[in-house]
Write a structure and sequence with these properties.
Elements (H helix, E strand, L loop, with lengths): L1 E5 L2 E5 L6 E5 L4 E5 L5 H11 L6
Antiparallel strand pairs: 1-2, 2-3, 3-4
Length: 55
């Protein structure tokens, strides 16, 4: 398992799964990306819905 940071977001990579959980650095659930390539799309949607505030 590996944690990585995308600006104000934290993602959790697990070698046993394609899906990637995404949280804000404050621990707010953002969603589950279908694969690593979908992480930035999920973050973009979250920022649009929440006005760009990761908290």
């Amino acid at each position: 398992m590996l944690l990585d940071r995308y600006g104000d977001y934290v993602v959790i990579f697990d070698a046993d799964r394609d899906q990637v959980p995404v949280f804000t650095v404050y621990g707010t659930w953002v969603g589950l990306a279908d694969n690593p390539d979908a992480i930035t799309h999920l973050i973009d949607i979250h920022e649009r819905v929440n006005g760009g505030d990761a908290g």
